[in-house]
Specification:
heterodimer, A: 887 residues, alpha+beta, Rossmann fold, six-stranded antiparallel β-sheet, flat, B: 375 residues, alpha/beta, Purple Acid Phosphatase, chain A, domain 2, 2 domains, six-stranded mixed β-sheet, 18 strands, 25% strand, elongated
Chain lengths: 887, 375
């Protein structure tokens, strides 16, 4: 589509006509300040196409304050080489004409023709709204609307699709999506969307089938149990009837009775046997008693013999013991003598040992006394010497400070003298032979010299006298100093009582020597008497006293025996004495034991004698012989009874053993138990039968099997329904997948060209980016290379500027698509891209320039400077107005 | 002359799981109705005796109410009813019969033979030799004792048994409870009334299965009848006439569709169906979508007319035609989907059934849409 001329009159701010002619087939740039009328031109173009000329909803086209105006628009354009002229007038004089070659259309017919041609719709009534604008609504970007792409695309989707289908030569489904939605809805009634789990009626059917299944199984179990019990009832009834007829316990009862009778017979025999055995036991006891009596008699006789032998034995023991006592008495006497002798010998040995000891002590004390006397004498002499030295030491003492003062004074006087001599007037003389002079008081001859330190009168005999005064005051001062020093020196010496410094030095050296000597003398004294002289005196006195005591002790000792030398040593004597003492003690003990034993033996002998007498007395008792013979006779009788009784007992016992009463008793018990068991079983079974009957009656009344049949019927229905629904769900799934697949294939085929166009623009704006197109042909997520790999964001997440740019390039892509499909395209940008930075804007201008080679593009801007490099001349609205006015 | 009504296999308490709940309830109810009909029939025809040859109840464990209802349904005929237990209601130690006695539900004119001993109806001059089942299944011939059974001379000997006559019936019937072939002959019976086989069947001159009075399955032929038996005296031939007692006709129909006109023919056939019909219908062959939709609509319509209609379309292959696709406005990829589904129905495809069902659903949706737009 190519717009060649626009003429506007009585429309908004253009009360006067405005004509824009010779529009370029490519880019057209219109500039103008705000309010200059750019948007009005756009609005006029839109109104010319979108609004019905009869519409009452276009009041806004009227110039302000001009109620009678008839806004009119005249457009010249060509589509596919066919030139069109559209004249449209609103409100006052409503009119619409479309001229295309020979074709001339009026009114709504013209408008509908245009709508079909460009791909939009008219509003049913009132002003046209966005949803009617279709393709122009997409390509004609309104002020501030470039970034808004989704809605315009939505409104144009059908037209785009048609265009795409036409271009592909394919027929897309007109109702496919509707069918797909319907199928999905049907499927979603049965299965959850996310997990494809049964839901709604399907789930209910499954749950119902499940619960019925459980109920049927439960009933089946109960029915099986019921049937088992019915069978059991029949079996029990049969068994019970058989028992009733046969009464098997009766036989056992009879057998029990027979066994009991036999047992009773055996019991009686057992009783007789028992009494016989008791009698035999009594006889046994009697025999035992008699034997005891006879034993007593014989033991009495044995006792007399035994006692007699015991007495004799005791007497022998007494004699032996007495002999032993005599032997021990003799030995004791000997031992006592030996002991006394050893004791005397020990006493003498000890006395002589004491004596030897005292003599040795006395000699020792004597030696010590001499030694201490000698030490005392030496120490006294040394002490006297020390006292003398200490006196000398005191006399030779000199204060070291005084000595140092003397030394210093002496040094300074020598120095002063040297200095005086150095400055003194030297008077040298050489006198003729025999001549003499008097220098001062001195008379000199010959030659020589003198140092004059003070005014001196030289008397030249015969010649008068010379008064020589040495030059300078120093000499005088030195002389005075020397004099003062000499006075001080003399005073000090005087105080010390010394002649001169040499004497002082000598005294000092003497003092040092005395000191050394005194120290040596004190050390010597210390060695001789460490504790002092008095200690030495005391020691000497002690020694003398001990010597005296020892002498007295010696004197008091008895005289030594004559055989003193033959005496044994003390230790030897002590050992001999101890040995003798022990020997004596042992022998005395043995003696005592022997005496004790002798006493015991004597007591035994006396007891034995008494016992023998007693035993003899028993034997000699009267009537003893009578009792003995009676006991013997009784024993013989009892033995005879015992033998006959034993025979009888044996016979009875054999009878009992043969009858085996224990087995008989067991038989009774066995038969009794067997019969009882059978009787009890019978009774129990009767009870069981009754119980079972009642139970079955109760259970049977519940009509379980009919109930089960009903449940099974319901279960079958539930299963059938679940199966149907499952099959339906599966078929729906199948259908959905197939529909989606086919739709996806178609969508991809439809999208391919749009994608291609979009990619071409996108490359320039966002290198390496890719943009997806969604099902509605809207721009989808944009994928760009980022710092950490590709980043994908939805269109809405882009910045406003980027969205605006994307909006424009998308529209250019749609325009390319439509162009390929042979559809008319016209792109209008009303103040678009105002949010783009310089770089992006430059790219956008390249894009627009490129797109203008395929489409006519009208660009309106209030910023001419930004668009100066678009490559086309700008038309200023202000200029256009003036031009139209002058025309 | 003795006139009796021979019936069996009432199967009271039977449920029909293969039907929808309301239909199943009506079919179960019909079993009681058939007993009422029998009673009225017996009364109106002045029969001397009604013989019920076993399986009176479908199970032992029917509800007390059911027992009461049955005997109540029988009250229309006051003459003697002689019954034996069958395999479904065997005379066990504890059974539906002992319960019926305990409940005092049985009128005095009902004789249940629980023991194999002759029942002498002296006034009638008839001796009934029953072979009641006292176990659920037995492999002994319970009618064996008929041969040696003594009955008073001059009395008509009538056998009453439930089981499978050997060597005559198909093996898939309950093959337990055997009855020797030629029992009537051997035992000198004038008539042997049998139960167990749900269709009416004559075994020999004097031996008949009456069949169930109310049909309860699609495969039982000749059911829904009772037998009207006339015995003029001992040794005289039995004159047996089937009498219809059933309420519902059970039909199992199948139509194979090959060409479009087959549908017209089939639908014309189905027009004959009425409210007494219980129908199982299976479609095979192939049809286009228009035909399929027509069949469905027709079936829905027929369902309103008959007692029950179960139509099985699963074996019917859908072959959409170009006309279908045009008619359904299945343009664009929908057309491709339909084509794919058509191919997907081929038996060698993995999910032919799914494809068929999917195609049916899609056709339904498109059809609804078209109708919606048209209206």
């Amino acid at each position: 589509m190519r717009l060649t001329r626009i003429r506007i009159e009585q429309l908004k701010q253009f009360r006067q006509p405005l004509e824009i002619a010779d529009l370029d087939p490519g880019l057209n740039l219109f500039t103008g300040a705000n309010e200059a009328g750019k948007s009005t031109i756009v609005a006029a173009i839109r109104a010319a196409f979108f609004e019905r000329h009869r519409s009452a909803g276009v009041d806004d086209l009227r110039p302000w304050g001009d109620a009678s105006a008839s806004p009119s628009i005249e457009l010249d354009f060509s589509i596919a080489g066919q030139a069109y002229r559209l004249r449209k007038r609103f409100l006052g004089k409503k009119r619409c004409e479309l001229q295309a070659g020979t074709l001339h259309l009026d009114g709504a017919e013209a408008e509908d023709h245009l709508a079909a041609l460009l791909g939009f719709q008219h509003a049913g009534r009132g002003a046209s709204r966005a949803e009617h604008w279709g393709i122009p609504g997409l390509l004609w970007i309104q002020q501030g609307g470039a970034q808004d792409i989704r809605e315009p695309v939505g409104h144009a989707t059908d037209h785009l699709r048609t265009a795409l289908n036409a271009s592909l030569g394919e027929v897309a489904s007109s109702s496919g999506d509707e069918v797909l939605n319907k199928v999905e809805a049907l499927r979603n009634e049965l299965l959850t969307t996310a997990t494809h789990k049964p839901r709604g009626p399907y789930q209910q059917a499954l749950e119902q089938a499940d619960s019925l299944e459980n109920a049927v199984q439960e009933l089946d179990r109960e029915i099986a149990a019921y049937r088992d019990r019915v069978d059991r009832l029949a079996a029990l009834r049969d068994a019970h009837a058989v028992d009733e007829a046969e009464q098997p316990w009766a036989v056992f009862r009879q057998q029990e009775q027979a066994a009991a009778t036999r047992l009773e017979d055996v019991r009686q025999i057992e009783a007789v046997l028992l009494s016989d055995r008791q009698r035999a036991g009594q006889l046994e006891a009697q025999i035992e008693l008699l034997r005891g009596q006879l034993d007593v008699f014989s033991s009495e006789e044995k006792a007399v013999h035994t006692r007699r032998a015991g007495l004799e034995h005791a007497q022998q023991a007494c004699q032996a013991q007495d002999a032993l006592v005599d032997q021990w008495q003799a030995k004791a006497r000997e031992a006592s003598d030996r002991y006394h002798a050893a004791r005397d010998s020990l006493r003498l040995a000890r006395q002589e040992a004491t004596r030897r000891d005292l003599v040795r002590q006395r000699d020792e004390w004597q030696r010590k006394l001499e030694s201490s006397t000698d030490a005392l004498a030496k120490a006294g002499a040394q002490q006297a010497a020390l006292i003398d030295l200490q006196r000398q030491l005191a006399e030779s003492a000199i204060d070291l400070r005084d000595l140092d003062a003397l030394r210093e004074q002496h040094g300074r006087m020598r120095e002063l003298r040297i200095r005086r001599d150095a400055i003194a007037t030297r008077l040298r003389f050489a006198l003729a032979e025999g001549g003499h002079i008097e220098i001062g008081q001195e008379s000199v001859t010959g030659s020589g010299d003198r140092l004059l330190t003070e005014p001196t009168r030289v008397n030249l005999p015969g010649l008068g006298q010379l008064d020589i005064t040495p030059g300078g005051t120093d000499l005088v001062e030195l002389g005075r100093q020397e004099q003062a020093l000499a006075d001080a020196h003399a005073t000090l010496l005087q105080r010390l009582g010394l002649a001169d410094l040499a004497a002082a030095e000598a005294r000092h050296q003497n003092h040092a020597r005395y000191q050394a000597e005194a120290r040596a003398a004190a050390a010597t004294l210390m060695a001789l008497a460490p504790q002092g002289i008095d200690a030495l005196h005391a020691e000497q006195a002690v020694h003398a006293a001990r010597l005296r005591e020892t002498g007295q002790a010696l004197a008091s000792l008895p005289a030594a025996p004559e055989s003193a030398t033959a005496l044994p040593a003390v230790s030897q004597a002590e050992a001999a004495e101890e040995s003798a003492r022990q020997s004596l003690e042992q022998i005395n003990q043995q003696l005592n034991q022997a005496r004790l034993a002798a006493g015991n033996v004597q007591a035994v002998r006396e007891a034995a004698a008494r016992e023998l007498a007693a035993a003899r007395a028993v034997l000699n008792a009267p009537a003893r012989a009578t009792r003995l013979s009676a006991a013997n006779q009784a024993l013989v009788d009892a033995r005879a009874d015992q033998a006959s009784l034993a025979t009888r007992i044996e016979a009875l016992a054999r009878q009992v053993a043969e009858a085996s009463p224990e087995l008989l008793r067991q038989d009774v018990e066995r038969f009794r138990r067997s019969a009882g068991l059978l009787e009890r079983q019978h009774a129990e079974r009767r009870d069981l039968l009754m119980r079972l009957e009642v139970e079955l009656q109760t259970t049977g009344a519940r009509g379980m099997e009919e109930r089960r049949a009903e449940l099974a019927r319901d279960l079958e229905q539930a299963h059938r329904r679940a199966d149907e629904l499952q099959r339906r769900a599966r078929a729906l799934d199948y259908l959905i997948n197939l529909l989606r697949d086919k739709r996806a294939i178609l969508t991809r085929r439809l999208h391919a060209p749009l994608q291609r166009h979009l990619s071409r623009y996108l490359r320039l704006l966002f290198p390496h980016a890719s943009l997806e197109i969604d099902a509605n042909l809207s721009p989808g997520p944009l994928t760009r290379p980022g710092a950490a790999g590709p980043e994908t964001g939805s269109f809405e997440e882009l910045s406003f500027g980027a969205r605006e740019q994307m909006g424009v390039i998308s529209r250019l892509a749609y325009a390319d698509l439509l162009k390929e499909a042979g559809r008319p395209t016209l792109v209008i940008l009303d103040d678009a891209l105002v949010h783009s930075d310089a770089t992006r804007l430059a790219q956008m201008k390249r894009l627009l320039f490129d797109a203008a080679s395929r489409h006519q593009i009208l660009v309106f801007t209030c910023r001419p400077a930004d668009w100066r490099d678009l490559g086309v001349g700008a038309r200023s609205l202000e200029a256009l107005r003036v031009m139209t006015a002058t025309d | 002359m003795i006139r009796l009504l021979h019936t069996a296999d009432w199967q009271i308490g039977k449920c029909y799981g293969q039907f929808e709940a309301d239909e199943a309830a009506l079919l179960a109810e019909a079993r009681f109705t058939s007993i009422e009909k029998l009673a009225i029939l017996a009364r109106d025809r002045h029969v001397d005796l009604v013989l019920v040859a076993g399986d009176v109840f479908d199970t032992q464990g029917v509800a007390d109410r059911t027992i009461h209802r049955l005997f109540h349904a029988m009250r229309g005929y006051a003459g003697p009813w002689v019954m034996i237990p069958g395999n479904h209601d065997a005379g066990l130690a504890e059974s539906v019969w002992t319960r019926a006695v305990r409940l005092q539900a049985m009128p005095a004119n009902v004789h249940v033979c629980l023991k194999p001993e002759p029942l002498l109806l002296t006034a009638l001059g008839a001796a009934i030799l029953p072979a009641p089942l006292t176990q659920r299944h037995t492999h002994a011939d319970l009618t064996a004792w008929f041969d040696g059974a003594e009955t008073p001379a001059g009395m008509v000997r009538i056998g009453l048994a439930h089981g499978c006559v050997q060597g005559i019936l198909a093996a898939d019937i309950d093959s337990a409870n055997p009855i020797a072939a030629g029992r009537a002959e051997q035992a000198g019976l004038d008539y042997l009334a049998l139960g167990d086989w749900h269709g009416t069947r004559q075994v020999d001159a004097r031996t008949w299965y009456s069949g169930t009075p109310e049909t309860d399955r699609f495969r039982a032929n000749d059911s829904g009848q009772a037998l009207w038996v006339e015995l003029s005296g001992p040794g005289a031939p039995a004159v047996v006439t089937p009498v219809a007692t059933g309420q519902y006709r059970w039909l199992s129909l199948g139509f194979a569709l090959r060409v479009a006109s087959d549908i017209d023919q089939a639908l014309a056939d189905l027009e004959a169906l009425g409210p007494a019909d219980v129908v199982r219908l299976s479609w095979t062959g192939q049809t286009d979508l228009a035909g399929y939709l027509r069949l469905r609509e027709s079936c829905a319509r027929i369902q309103g007319r008959v007692r029950s209609l179960q139509a099985d379309f699963s074996a019917l292959r859908l072959e959409p035609s170009d006309a279908d696709i045009d008619a359904l406005h299945a343009d664009g990829y929908l057309g491709e989907v339909i084509a794919e589904l058509r191919d997907g129905q081929r038996p060698d495809r993995s999910d032919a059934e799914g494809a068929r069902d999917a195609l049916a659903i899609l056709a339904g949706i498109l059809h609804e849409r078209r109708k919606g737009r048209a209206s």
